[in-house]
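I'm curious: can you give me some protein's one-letter sequence along with its backbone structure tokens because I've never seen that pairing?
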Amino acid sequence: MILPASAGMSFSMTSSALLDEFDPNYPETFDNSHEIYAEMRERCPVAHSSAFGGFWALFKYDDIVRIQEDGRTFITSQQNTVPKIAFTGRRPPLHFDPPEHADFRKPLDPVFKKHYISQLRPILESFADDLLAPMIARGRGDYALEFALPFAARAFGELLGLPTEFMLRVREIGMEYQLNIQAMDNEAVRATSLRLYEIAQEIITSRADAPPGNPDRDIVAALLQAGERGKPLAPEMMVACVRQLLPAAQAAPQAVLGSIAVHLGRDRSLQDHLRDHRYLIPDAIEEFLRLYAPYRVFARTAVKDVEIGGRHVRAGEPIAMIFASANRDETIFEDADTFRLDRKPNKHIAFGRGAHRCPAASLARLELSVGVERLLNAPPFALSAEPTMGSWLEFGPIGVPIEFDVLK
């Protein structure tokens, strides 16, 4: 396969003349990114791109794990995404490095404990059934639009005490925000970001004078009562934290659910096998997370000149971590492109590593588990058209048309 930047591609091992070795702005299909990443791992695993103002892209598992676990050399507070987002304020916990970062994670982490998250299962199961019922009755539907989108909104809304309709409005603004980022339209980025700040401020303000909630079950209550367990948070930092979490916590589960539906829609035998062996669903979820990790724009910035994979990366240059590539690294995973239920250990990094590992991993796993289980309760299904992909910011489809084998 020809890489997107092949016309002027150079694999020089110096950065004296940084050429365009990787172009992320190619027309994406559900499959071609993984083909491109495989070739990048082989030919140029640490690549420079002139897109989005210039950045380094890492494609190998060990390189990405290294920079996540070395928080002293590779920081998140200078530039944490590619493209760099037009500044509207620092938003915890993502925009802070340790040890400051811990001040914001400490109140949040208890909310996402597996014990508490698991209690949401009956609510999410009921909601999943309600979303799937009209699709099954019609014999068809768009799983990404009609199921994954509202389902992810409802799940995170439970931890904020907010209705699904409100969360869907937030997600709509968040998707507009993402497209503005990819277009590098800084004015529009600021405008949509400030709309999300306004919503976050409304949420904090509405709760400040209400009876205190349970900080183990409610994100806003946890932030408001942070001082009871550690360091009190400044009001503007509470707003910024909610602003950060509002769109982010919906996007990744929606993307992975859509990818899972595509995979299962193409593989009737796997559908049947998982229907007959429900105890394998947790292993299937981990393998789906490996194959379809949604993140590919999270970045770090080196505080000093460093060598990565034989390339000289200067201090201050942004480094994007392509998780979706790392999880298919052939040197780490045998039969890396193959779905295997017996993959143990499964050392995928879909949720990241180190201090910034995704705090909502337990919620995401519950969403994926319920989404897969309830979909497998439905009649067998297949793709009715090719999936429609989203933006560079997450790998995953925003349109997954499926048809069910419904008896007439």
